């Protein structure tokens, strides 16, 4: 017997699954350009550029006005609220520039972490109050997908079952509200790489977290075909002394996903989590070559690993526009190849692309 109170009509489901599939079609992935004002400040500080609205706008204008062929590699761009309403120097809204390139526009919907009392400094994510109204407005303003990032840390007694359950439930509530408003929810439960744990421990925790997330999504009647997952890759903690190959990372990652993520999910777009640009690409390539069943598209939704070389090339100077766009295009194309298991490392990457982008206790 079908469920008595269907959450979505067949038209709504069709729209959501078409949006999700467009974003990850043919090796395409997502540019996560949704850094909040504070996070963007940290990025700009690294290149000694002041964190003003105009500087943030200028960098993003350079990214979004890159050659239209970017649409072969990038299927969606996640924006922060401020950026959704910003314009290029000719007065054209960024969101229209992206849409004209055939790129789907997304919006960051979570509103930061709040402490979970009685835990070892664990958090839940805020932003559920008024979320439906915000989603409806963003949909009217051209967004077709949303993003909500939950953070889980591996440490003494962490993640606790309270943190896992609470964050899974908030992600499911968010996903359900998004779908009611025509937005594809990107579900992002990030197990952050802080710590000295090994690969096996990260795999164990990632499996527990993903299993809880998919149970909660099912409880909340979320239509999985109209969602995308944005998980961490399974890696050892940043301070772990043992090093693992991309093939080992790939096997641990795909094993964890295979055990927990239903085949109805159209795409899994990894976050880069402080890996260098080159490592993020090599790991993604190995994941796509991993000899386990992979019923979903395995792609990218990188923030740092798509923008680090571009930011370094820009350095806050308009005269560096061409070099900035070339650096961005290079990473986008490399990741698109990796999302199809076709990336060949040439060994000629610049320094910026091999530098670790890890920041301890990364908050947003
Ligand atoms: O780990 P990365 O790939 O740099 O960024 C992942 C991410 O979820 O975190 C950032 C802050 O919210 C966002 O810009 C981005 O969407």
UniProtKB/TrEMBL annotation:
Enzymatic class: lyase
Pfam families registered for this protein in UniProt: Glycolytic (PF00274)
EC annotation from Swiss-Prot or TrEMBL: 4.1.2.13
Keyword Lyase in annotation: yes
UniProt GO molecular function: ATPase binding; cytoskeletal protein binding; fructose binding; fructose-1-phosphate aldolase activity; fructose-bisphosphate aldolase activity; identical protein binding; molecular adaptor activity
UniProt catalytic activity: beta-D-fructose 1,6-bisphosphate = D-glyceraldehyde 3-phosphate + dihydroxyacetone phosphate; beta-D-fructose 1-phosphate = D-glyceraldehyde + dihydroxyacetone phosphate
GO cellular component annotations of the record: centriolar satellite; cytosol
Functional description taken from the UniProt entry: Catalyzes the aldol cleavage of fructose 1,6-biphosphate to form two triosephosphates dihydroxyacetone phosphate and D-glyceraldehyde 3-phosphate in glycolysis as well as the reverse stereospecific aldol addition reaction in gluconeogenesis. In fructolysis, metabolizes fructose 1-phosphate derived from the phosphorylation of dietary fructose by fructokinase into dihydroxyacetone phosphate and D-glyceraldehyde.
Protein family: Belongs to the class I fructose-bisphosphate aldolase family.
Protein name stated in the entry: Fructose-bisphosphate aldolase
Organism encoding this protein: Mustela putorius furo (European domestic ferret)
Annotated gene: ALDOB
């Amino acid at each position: 017997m079908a469920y008595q109170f269907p959450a979505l009509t067949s038209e709504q489901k069709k729209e959501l699954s078409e949006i999700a599939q467009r974003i990850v079609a043919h090796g395409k992935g997502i540019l996560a350009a949704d850094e909040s004002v504070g996070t963007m400040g940290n990025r700009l500080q690294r290149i000694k550029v002041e964190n003003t609205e105009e500087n943030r706008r200028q960098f993003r204008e350079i990214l979004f006005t890159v050659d239209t062929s970017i649409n072969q590699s990038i299927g969606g761009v996640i924006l922060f609220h401020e950026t959704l309403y910003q314009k290029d120097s000719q007065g054209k809204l960024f969101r229209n520039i992206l849409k004209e390139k055939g790129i789907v526009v997304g919006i960051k919907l979570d509103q930061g972490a709040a402490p979970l009392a009685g835990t070892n400094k664990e958090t839940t994510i805020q932003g559920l109050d008024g979320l439906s109204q915000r989603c409806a407005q963003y949909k009217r303003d051209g967004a077709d997908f949303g993003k909500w990032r939950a953070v889980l840390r591996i440490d003494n007694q962490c993640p606790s079952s309270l943190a896992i359950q609470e964050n899974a439930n908030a992600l499911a509530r968010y996903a359900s509200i998004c779908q009611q408003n025509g937005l594809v929810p990107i579900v992002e439960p990030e197990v952050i790489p802080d710590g000295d744990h090994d690969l096996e421990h990260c795999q164990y925790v990632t499996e527990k977290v993903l299993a809880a997330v998919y149970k909660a999504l099912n409880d909340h009647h979320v239509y999985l075909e109209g969602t995308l997952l944005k998980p961490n890759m399974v890696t050892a903690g940043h301070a772990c002394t043992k090093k693992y190959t991309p093939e080992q990372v790939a096997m641990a990652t795909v094993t964890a996903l295979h055990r927990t993520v239903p085949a109805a999910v159209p795409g899994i777009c990894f976050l880069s989590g402080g890996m260098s640009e080159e490592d993020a690409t090599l790991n993604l390539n190995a994941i796509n070559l991993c000899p386990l069943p992979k019923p979903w598209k395995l792609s990218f939704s990188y923030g740092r690993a798509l923008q680090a070389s571009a930011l370094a090339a820009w350095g806050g100077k308009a005269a560096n526009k061409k070099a900035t766009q070339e650096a961005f295009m290079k990473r986008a194309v490399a990741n698109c190849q990796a999302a199809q298991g076709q990336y060949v490392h040439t060994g000629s990457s610049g320094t910026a692309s091999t530098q670790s982008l890890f920041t301890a206790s990364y908050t947003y």
